[in-house]
Amino acid sequence: MSKMRAAQITRPKGPIEIVEREIPQPGAGWVRIKVEACGVCHSDAMTKEGLWPGIEYPRVPGHEIAGVIDAVGTTVVGWTLGQRVGVGWHGGHCGYCDSCRRGDFVTCQIALQVPGIAYDGGYAEYMIAPASALASIPEGLSALDAGPLMCAGVTTFNSLRNSGARPGDVVAVLGIGGLGHLGVQFAAKMGFKTVAIARGMDKEPLARKLGAFSYIDSKAQDPAAELLKLGGAKVVLATVTNGDAMSAVLGGLGVNGKLVILGAAAEPLQVAGIPLLLGRRSILGWPSGSSIDSQDTLAFSNLTGVRAMNEIFPLERAAEAYEHMMSGKARFRAVLTTGR
Ligand SMILES: [Zn+2]
Ligand SMILES: [Zn+2]
Description:
Helix 10 (318-326) links the parallel strand 14 and strand 15. The strands form 3 sheets. Strands 3, 4, 5, 6, 7, 14 and 15 form a 7-stranded mixed sheet that branches. This protein has helices at 45-48, 98-101, 143-161, 180-189, 204-209, 223-229, 243-249, 273-278, 291-304, 318-326, and strands at 3-9, 16-22, 30-40, 65-72, 84-87, 126-130, 135-136, 170-174, 193-198, 214-217, 233-238, 253-261, 282-285, 310-314, 333-337. The chain is α/β, with parallel strands linked by helices. The protein is globular, with a radius of gyration of 20 Å. Bound molecules: zinc ion (2 copies).
């Protein structure tokens, strides 16, 4: 049997270990992907720390996958050998629950299949995925470009394009990290008056380079007051994982303004009810998107030049890449490469 290298976790909170495994075979409806790159996402902690119920170990993490189809299972139509594809958080769905029947696959109630959680993901030289989870990668994007767009990219792109904000509206991105540095680019390219909010001044030059019209230092300034000076935000895209930082921007929402939560905050938010109801303001979350949303993200990024800024690690250093991402020091996305 032919073998491959993979980075796996054998138990919750266990280490990420490089092992040799048999190359998986795709069953009916699935394809095998020769992985070229896989982004390291904060949500990989679900697998690493055992935070998601029902994970079967050993498990290979990774849901920001980019590579090439190298085997096609029976009954697969529309995808061919050698095609460049990505797989993201939406890695398949049941097809028969109420959400799926409404075409809302990423909120599948029965069997949302997330790579690296429901089945082995992209921290490996090969992985298999349902054809329904595939996104086509345009020619102009490298695998290293495409990988981080499959979760961080589609989450920011898809939440912004469905936020109701219109060109010229004030849209703030809270947090300039793995998600936020993409959020600022997408917001600017979509024609929003884009405001970046982060702690300290060191990220201002980068935020402006990425397309921010204005920068708010939330350490020195009151972000809510600063947003109101700009007329109030139509949307604040919250990419931080800090509940207090999210609470602090709520007062900066304009009429009909929305706080869109993308970062998994550990603490609850402090919310005053009256400003919400008087100004029809709202707070909502957004769960990335389905495979066609990922494909739209790749196409838009190819068209407009949006790119993740990546720190590249070979697959052998997956454990180090994960720790680097979790430390918050990655500038701005850690991506594994198989060297293929
Ligand atoms: Zn992710
Ligand atoms: Zn379903």
